[in-house]
Amino acid sequence: MLVKFKKAWANYLVKFAKSYQNEGIPISYMTIQNEPNAKQIWESCLYSAKEEADFLKNYLFPTFKQNNLATQFLIWDHNKDILLERGVETLVTHQALNCASGIAFHWYTGRSF
After folding, report:
1. Tally of domains within the chain
2. How far, in Å, CA of 84 to CA of 20, rounded?
């Protein structure tokens, strides 16, 4: 994603959160992208761990802070099968640990769910 689009997307999400907040509905938590590793037959947005970390720490997190929004961010929001690997890669390898409040995941994959 080009830098100008990253800035625009972060600003759009701030407007979204502020609009809800103005209606008395605070957005406490938000994920970066639902299923960032799923290439669909419809519009979708793929994020590698590096891209997700970059967007979170360099655009989304600081833009929300600059706008005095207390929304916390969750990474991944995808299947549980590679949750540990993806979490370590995004949070540790790509240094997004200070910007994320947790990891969202889908429980419905694998043999036991």
Report:
1. 1
2. 32
